[in-house]
Design goal:
This protein is mainly β and 183 residues long. The chain has a domain at 24-128: Immunoglobulin-like (Sandwich). 14% of the residues lie in helices and 39% in strands. It contains two helices and 13 strands; from the N terminus they run H-E-E-E-E-E-E-E-E-E-E-E-H-E-E. The chain has helices at 2-23, 137-140; strands at 27-28, 31-37, 40-46, 53-58, 63-69, 71-72, 78-81, 86-95, 100-108, 113-119, 122-128, 175-176, 181-182. A hairpin with a 2-residue loop joins strand 10 (113-119) and strand 11. It is globular, with a radius of gyration of 35 Å.
Length: 183
């Protein structure tokens, strides 16, 4: 009986000691992608499990910070080039005896609108707005014809079949251009 109780006690002790190790299993960040999307750019941070993260913004220069709690970024650490309104990004790791945080620092080309959300095992960071160095649409388009400063002239249809351009009666035929009208 003592042997049976000792085995159960050892099993419970082993389970208790193993529980923190299982709970501390980190979200291993595996891939960082920067891609252009309609109206801006997106950073996709793929991990091994659904992320828990916090987001804040810094200025001077404009940056977006995403801290992923309980994550290991050792496989993806370092700088990357940006696209569109993102000038670049850096992934770093902060670890102490009680926690591990992966930080994604997104450098912005000026003040931009952003959205950060979890999508399965990934964090999606979307930054909206054209980059300041992108050519403006107006620069690439041909100039339109200058609008007329005069209002268009409405000419009523002739009331008689014999109206001519020299007639002074109502229903006379008139000619008009965008800037002049003669009747």
């Amino acid at each position: 009986m003592r042997t049976h109780s000792a085995v159960i006690l050892m099993g419970c002790l082993a389970a208790t000691l193993a529980a923190p190790a299982l709970a501390a299993e980190q979200n291993v960040l595996r891939e960082i992608r920067v891609e252009e999307v309609a109206g801006g750019a997106r950073v996709a941070v793929a991990g091994s499990k659904p992320p828990v993260f916090t987001v804040f913004r810094l200025s001077g220069p404009d940056r977006l910070v995403v801290d992923v709690a309980g994550a290991d970024a050792s496989a993806v650490k370092g700088p990357r080039d940006g696209k569109g309104p993102i000038s670049g990004l850096t992934v770093s790791q902060f670890t102490d005896s009680s926690t591990s945080v992966a930080r994604v620092l997104v450098a912005l080309k000026g003040e931009k609108t952003y959205d950060v959300k979890a999508d399965g095992n990934a964090v999606l960071i979307t930054v909206l707005g054209p980059s300041p160095d992108a050519p403006a649409v107006a620069k690439t388009m041909q100039p339109a014809a200058a609008p007329s400063s005069a209002a268009p002239v409405v000419v009523p249809a002739p009331t008689t079949a014999s109206a001519s351009s020299s007639s002074t009666r109502p229903g006379r035929a008139c000619s008009s251009t965008p800037r002049t009208s003669s009747c």
